TrEMBL record:
Pfam families on file: SpoIIM
Domain of life the protein comes from: Bacteria
InterPro entries linked: SpoIIM-like
Keywords per UniProt: Membrane, Transmembrane, Transmembrane helix
Transmembrane segments: 99-118, 168-192, 222-240, 288-311, 357-379, 412-433, 454-473, 479-502, 523-549, 569-590
Keyword Transmembrane: yes
Originating organism: Bernardetia litoralis (strain ATCC 23117 / DSM 6794 / NBRC 15988 / NCIMB 1366 / Fx l1 / Sio-4) (Flexibacter litoralis)
Protein name: Uncharacterized membrane protein
Keyword Zinc appears in the UniProt entry: no
Length: 617
């Protein structure tokens, strides 16, 4: 039977099923009967129309009826449970050799750090910084070597430390995209730092105190960084050793595998930040308690990420997953209303970004230099007290937080300009995606006039969202971690507000409905938010900045105040460029997720086809 005939014969019955599901009081017997009928149709559709929308439509109705009949709430979370009990352990088994390599590299670097500090005691100043070493020596002299963990309130410290730990772990993973070299560099650096750090305390006769304090949280933290490095190595190997696949296909598979590992590390890193903020400060806690916590943390990390996967595979309780390539290519027809998994979403998003990269880069190039100069003139006027290069490290950290959060209460024009720039950067990819929605093709013909009109009509919506995020981080810049958690929902709202309706309240209601229709899939986008945010911060505060400053130090005399002007303009230009390049990828990913959930919830494609058939009749 042809698909159109199948739909036509059963259309009325399916509409009755939908009406039944909308009723507040439902007859259980009728629901059970409906479930039997719909599963029969679904079975037929799976056999003859396996890759068609009608199967997805029937599957959605069957799931709704099943939930109403059996009322088993655990079914909703079965996917999440499977991830932790089977998917992630299977992935860890597949990357076990990369994990061993990451551990050996880190441990070898740790020994190098110890040896270097033994041979050159001042080496610790190079790795940790003179100010930190001096502060620690003062704490040791005062009889409290771990006083550094007591200097801030618990809440502020938690957000700051957790954000930094996520940044380091994600950096270890993301840098694997540079053919593993970046991941190896990060792993070696962290290993040397830990080794030098621990020997420094040994040389001051406070090794025991440091071990029971630092490794209280460090067991989870360092282990997570090693696992993240293994994920980065896995991703890099996809580029280096594609085997029979193309390099891009191999990279997609390995990156997806690494990302699954990174999702599993997020709770571990958050827990490590909690321990460091709330427990490590209690240095008078009995050693037996701290030692027990360290041992439990160690057994958990080794047990879950190493032993448990090995046992599951060897006892054949799980089968190793076969990685499939996304069923999309640049030459395939683009279907907006299509159910996509996370891998398809990322692949489609990168393809759209690549198609629109040139016009976005053109917009960026047009705006970067003038905006950099405007921001410079708004903020940095008095630099007479700047001592180059002694003040440069402090200033860079100040600029880094300033240009990301825009919190500069003494300069209202700067805060306004900063918010407007973010709004423009956010509206730009919405323009290209909305054109994609309208024309249903990836590549569009754009013009300055069309873009300007869209910007004029919609930038205020993005500005409103930006102001919400800025309100969150206003009190403390490190609350940006909290802001990242609400970004996916806010961008859902923007999509509904831009494409669905101009009424912000209706748009927000629709965004909430879609966001929580598939909460697990939606919250998976939180990881994408953290990942993209990490890439953004890594690029903005990377070794490139250090290299740039090093060149300035080599060619200019100390005290040259005009050097700071160069640094300021450089940082602002970097900020704008990276923002206009990174933000669109995230916006496209959220858009793909938005329309994927819409298709799952509303069966848009099938409804259009049924309406088209009725018109033809």
């Amino acid at each position: 039977m042809r698909e159109n005939t199948f739909i036509e014969q059963n259309k009325a019955k399916w509409e009755d099923f939908e009406q039944l599901l909308k009723e507040k009081k439902r007859n259980p017997d009728k629901l059970s009967e409906s479930f039997v009928e719909i599963t029969d149709d679904l079975s037929y559709a799976r056999t003859f129309y396996a890759n068609r929308s009608v199967r997805l439509y029937l599957n959605g109705i069957a799931q709704q009826i099943f939930r109403d009949v059996y009322k088993n709430k655990r079914v909703k979370w079965q996917k999440l449970l499977d991830f932790w009990t089977t998917d992630l352990p299977a992935t860890m088994y597949m990357i076990r050799k990369d994990l061993l390599l990451a551990f050996l590299i880190f441990f070898g670097a740790l020994l190098i750090g110890v040896f270097s500090t033994v041979q050159y005691p001042d080496f610790v100043n190079v790795i940790l910084g003179e100010e930190y070493v001096q502060m620690t020596e003062e704490n040791i002299a005062n009889g409290d070597p771990m006083a550094v963990y007591k200097g801030s309130d618990e809440i502020t410290m938690f957000f700051k430390i957790t954000f930094n730990n996520l940044r380091v772990a994600l950096m270890s993973f993301v840098m694997g995209a540079f053919f593993c070299v970046g991941t190896l560099f990060v792993s070696v650096y962290n290993g040397i730092m830990v080794g030098s750090f621990q020997y420094f305390f040994y040389s001051k006769d406070v090794l025991i105190d440091s071990l029971f304090a630092i490794w209280l949280h460090g067991t989870l933290e360092i282990s997570a960084i090693i696992v993240a490095s293994a994920a980065g190595i896995t991703m890099g190997k996809g580029l280096l050793f594609p085997k029979t696949l193309s390099r891009l296909e191999s990279f997609q598979i390995s990156a997806r595998r690494g990302m699954k590992v990174m999702v599993g590390l997020v709770p571990v890193i958050i827990l490590a930040g909690f321990i460091e903020s709330f427990l490590t400060r209690y240095t008078d806690m009995p050693l037996i308690i701290r030692g027990t916590l360290i041992l439990v943390s160690f057994l958990f990390m080794v047990g879950y990420f190493v032993v448990y996967p090995y046992i599951l595979v060897k006892t054949k309780k799980i089968k190793l997953p076969v990685q499939k390539l996304p069923e999309t290519s640049e030459d395939s027809d683009f279907e907006l209303f299509q159910i996509r998994n996370l891998g398809n979403i990322l692949t489609e998003s990168m393809m759209i970004h690549r198609k629109h990269f040139v016009p976005i880069l053109t917009i960026c190039a047009t705006l970067v230099f003038p905006l950099s100069m405007v921001m410079y003139l708004l903020v940095f006027k008095d630099i007479s007290n700047f001592d180059f290069p002694n003040d440069i490290e402090y200033k860079l950290e100040e600029y880094y937080l300033l240009i990301v959060t825009g919190n500069y209460t003494s300069n209202i024009p700067f805060m306004i300009a900063h918010a407007i720039i973010w709004a423009v950067a956010l509206t730009t990819p919405y323009y290209f995606f909305s054109e994609t929605v309208n024309q249903e093709v990836r590549k569009i013909d754009w013009s300055v006039v069309n873009f300007s009109n869209f910007l004029f009509k919609n930038a205020y919506k993005s500005l409103f969202v930006v102001l919400i995020i800025k309100a969150i981080v206003f009190y403390n810049p490190f609350l940006i971690l909290v802001a990242l958690l609400v970004v996916p929902l806010l961008l859902f709202w923007l999509y509904a507000w831009t494409i669905y309706t101009n009424n912000p309240f209706k748009a927000f209601a629709r965004a909430l409905k879609l966001f929580f229709f598939q909460p697990i899939d939606s919250f998976m986008m939180l990881f994408i938010s953290l990942l993209v945010g990490s890439v953004y911060f890594i690029l903005l505060n990377s070794t490139l900045s250090g290299f740039f400053i090093g060149v300035l130090e080599m060619h200019f005399l100390e005290g040259e105040t005009f050097v700071l002007k160069i640094v300021q303009v450089f940082y602002f230009a970097s900020f704008f460029t990276i923002t206009f390049i990174i933000v669109p990828l995230f916006v496209y990913s959220i858009g793909m997720q938005y329309f994927s959930i819409m298709e799952r919830a509303e069966n848009t494609t099938l409804r259009k086809r049924i309406e088209a058939m009725e018109v033809e009749e």
